[in-house]
Amino acid sequence: xxxxxxxxxxxxxxxxxxxxxxxxxxxxxxxxxxxxxxxxxxxxxxxxxxxxxxxxxxxxxxxxxxxxxxxxxxxxxxxxxxxxxxxxxxxxxxxxxxxxxxxxxxxxxxxxxxxxxxxxxxxxxxxxxxxxxxxxxxxxxxxxxxxxxxxxxxxxxxxxxxxxxxxxxxxxxxxxxxxxxxxxxxxxxxxxxxxxxxxxxxxxxxxxxxxxxxxxxxxxxxxxxxxxxxxxxxxxxxxxxxxxxxxxxxxxxxxxxxxxxxxxxxxxxxxxxxxxxxxxxxxxxxxxxxxxxxxxxxxxxxxxxxxxxxxxxxxxxxxxxxxxxxxxxxxxxxxxxxxxxxxxxxxxxxxxxxxxxxxxxxxxxxxxxxxxxxxxxxxxxxxxxxxxxxxxxxxxxxxxxxxxxxxxxxxxxxxxxxxxxxxxxxxxxxxxxxxxxxxxxxxxxxxx
Length: 448
Hints:
The chain is of the alpha/beta class. The protein has helices spanning 2-16, 19-22, 35-38, 43-49, 66-76, 91-108, 124-128, 131-135, 149-152, 155-159, 171-183, 196-206, 210-223, 236-242, 255-269, 273-285, 290-305, 311-325, 331-344, 350-364, 420-431, and strands at residues 56-59, 80-85, 112-117, 140-145, 162-165, 192-194, 225-226, 232-234. Strands 2-3-4-1-5 form a five-stranded parallel sheet, sandwiched between helices. Helix 6 links the parallel strand 2 and strand 3 (112-117). Residues 434-448 have low confidence and may be disordered.
């Protein structure tokens, strides 16, 4: 009777579960995508099939199949499957699960797969509570996280586990999942038909997230009209009403955040305005802090454009002020203008290289005395210092004298690029490097 009651309860839960939950794969054969991680011939596939799995950390964006893969692993092995949520569970819950796993192993010899979703949300003490059980294999841990585990999961736990990275699903994978949901009895069982253009829109807006795709289909079906035979036809309008915006993975602190800003900077450095605007749009769409974007552009203006175009720093500063005082959505225009300017500007990293080279000498080189003719004159004994040649007393305000400490020669830190204002000014400087005319020879002391 209890068994019958449990069966009815499970059937009732399935009846109200969302389409994405009902369509979770039950076997490796049903699992779609992630061939690089769990495809035929991979170590993970072999470990699952031979029931010799060690602890895992599954890392990837939402909707890529981390929870589904954990459940498939449990179904394909002889282990008990215990799920703990890092959002709602504490150390006491972990210890209870580990104690139950120990009893299970002792009494029946059955191993336990302990699945922890959002494992990065566990504190250090909670993660530490797992170490002994994972090390002696009281449990086989499968942790799932959308954050880089090498930053968010304790190193001792990482060292006892294998990190498996899952990628966003391809459009072809998402299409297979959608088609299966339409046909499978667990889904719509053929009672729903989706127009080709509507299916294409579902796949496009899903952004590699199977859960988003299935949710769009489910909501679209609830809006669809039935034909004379009772079959629901999901149209493009139904899908677009169900999904108003495209789902593109973006986080403001994790890997995607850093990957997108990296692509943005590298696109400007590569002088590609289209790519720069695209990656900027990704950040705008994801709700990135506009001041963060503008700060990186300020750095870029000096690091990658430098004195090839000194105006770039002013443009980037203006963009930062607009981000600071205007904000979204209008400042997107200011940021786009600045990004395009920086992408098109001539490039020079020589200022960046010069300061780092000089810092290296300051930190690691000898203590170099200041040439006496450059020292401050407002002290007793300054009359004995070498003569300082005042550049404004000479044509073009140029005069040859040593400014570097002894042991360093011109060009040791700064070597101009051959681009833009920097190159023009260096050529003009070099053209005027001949010894200038001077009245008298009293200024000869201290010349290079």
